[in-house]
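User: Show me an example of a complex going from sequences to structure tokens.

Assistant: Sure. Here are the input components:
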Amino acid sequence: MASKAHEHLLDWLRDAHGMEQQAEQMLKAQAGRLENYPELKARIEQHIEETQHQADLVEGCISKLGGSPSGVKDTGGKMMAMMQGMGGMFTTDEVLKGGIASYAFEHFEMASYRSLIGAAEYAGEPEIKQTCEAILKQEEAMAKWLEDNLPETTMKYLQRDETEGATAKR
Amino acid sequence: MASKAHEHLLDWLRDAHGMEQQAEQMLKAQAGRLENYPELKARIEQHIEETQHQADLVEGCISKLGGSPSGVKDTGGKMMAMMQGMGGMFTTDEVLKGGIASYAFEHFEMASYRSLIGAAEYAGEPEIKQTCEAILKQEEAMAKWLEDNLPETTMKYLQRDETEGATAKR
């Protein structure tokens, strides 16, 4: 357990735990603002539940390695800087920018889990690898949904914006 | 040209132009730091050239609509906040976090162009739609490369980190 690879794996799992907490906040803010896009809102609400469960799963992996999710290991605060930047994006009162930011964030999460899968394999931790693969599938499904939904949401936005009395932005 | 859809299309093209300029800066910083990952560095350098050409193409679309890429239309600075957050991420002296950030940023760009494609179709601008589709293909190819390369880069990072005298981070 004292190998360098295990240390990195533990650090990166802590990063992932912080990432899921950030994701939950952002998704809640986003869902809370949406008024005229019920399908998007429902899908985000589903993903909030998934995200909460993912945070628990990652916490389990951290415990398995003898650590605690006491804080993101984040040399120089670079990861937090990025996530705050992304978080700032989610405060936008605009459905399309929010959707684009969500899509980017999902891929940030997906790349993180893919890297974790490689690290778990390298460190000889098949259970952690499996957990990360399961989480990755949920992130991929959410990203796919957002991708499929974006052109339609864009059209709806432009239609609503041309309609007297309709709010397009949220 | 005075339709609301055209106004949005023009605003979003300006956003895309700012996004490509930001991308170029981030990619250059990232490529400049890499020492031990020559394939990643070469692919990033290729994408810097693509990015410069994409900025020109977007500028052409803006001109076609009678505008100028005078600045990102960015109500409340939310888009800049996100891009700066992402930019902060790219200053990390660490190949994996940089790769994850690049991957997320590529998908931010991809979602932006997909939304633009929808908007160009809605506004009846087939040439702009076609240009955005061509750019989207390049972004997708870069994202795919990063995705395929990430597990290997993770392994290499962990191997180098265990090797006496080898630098893993860059």
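The lines above are the inputs; the final block is the predicted structure for all two components together. Chain A touches chain B through 54 residues (CB under 8 Å).
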